[in-house]
Structure prediction request, 433 residues.
Amino acid sequence: MAHDDDHRKPRMEDWGVLNAVPEPPPEEIDLAPRSRPRAPEQPPPNSLLPDPDMLVDVPIKSHRSYAGLVFLVVIALGGVGLYFVMSRDLESDRVRGNPEGIQLGTPQSITAAGAAPEEIEIAPPPKKALLRLESDPPGARVVVNGNPHGSPTPTAVQTFVGQPVRVHMYLDGHAPLMKALTITGSEETLKLALEKGKVETGSLEVNSDPPGAFITYGGVVVGETPFKLEGLPAGHPVFFRLQKEGHEPHTVRYEVGAGAERRIGVRMVPVDPDNARAMATVTVESDPLVARIDRVAGGKSDREGSTGSRPVQVFARIGYPLVLEASARDYGKDRVAIDVVDPNYTVLMRLPPPKKVYGGLKITGPKSLTVYVDAEEQDALPIELKNLLAGEHDLVVVEPETKTKAKFKVRVGEDATVTKALRLTDDGRIVLE
Prediction:
């Protein structure tokens, strides 16, 4: 067996035989079984296998790429070129893209062109005026432009010249009084006569976040939040101030209805010792819930927003006057003037409901006619309706036997009675005269 193994191993001189192209197989293959065992097949010749005597060492040289270096050089050259072009443009008076070379005047740099002034000029506040207040009888609490005054009448407060001023006076056992005026000089005196009378009242529960804020009402500290203010004059705005150590003061203008119990929550803002407040935040709510809020200045109105699920926040400069006006469809308007002193205000603007005016309607005609006014059936003719809202009303007339129907529009005037006559024509029509 050892002899057979040696016979199967190729020798060095046999490499040429192995690399030779094999001859094609015979056309006929003998498939008869062989009597002797079949010898293992030789591996197929590999024509790509080199002659060992021809193998030599070939030195391999590493490949170097200069693409990255070229890319960096191109970027650097582009940056230098862009800097050169921009420098020439900045030093030139030529308008870009203008071949005529229109001159713009003295050249300026980008820094000079975009520089903001060191201080933004703000219009100074209007001149201040001294308003002396007196009441008959004396001792009334005073609120001037949203700020409760600590001293009862007679007293004096400071406000602005040429700006709307609203003075509120309150005295127990007397009806509250409001006076609107405009001060033209440096000093003016206002004296109001308060009438005795029973005033309907309501209450307001005041809460704050955080709690523990002192409430000043009518120049006197009356309690600490949460606190319920009782005996407030109904239908008139009331003013009180909340103060808590470490927090900014907050002034509230609110209004309650007769016998109503309302609640209000105020968020106290912590004092920032490193940032003195120059602007105040005025939070505006309204009754009805949805109303338009305008800032009024110089005879013009600028919309600040509309109340609804959230109040409107108005920003005003401390030390300046602020006038706000609220309006809503089918309601009157409410206006409030504030001399902004505190950093925070909460203002409820209650709009007066639509003014209702009434008139009368008198209708005559055949008793057989059935009359409906605004879809409501009336008694047999003739009829007279009193305290009918002034304006246009729908009138429907039916003749039951013939089923004839007629529709009319009737206008009722204020504090006047309108007379109308119904009749049936020969052709069966219903006529209103």
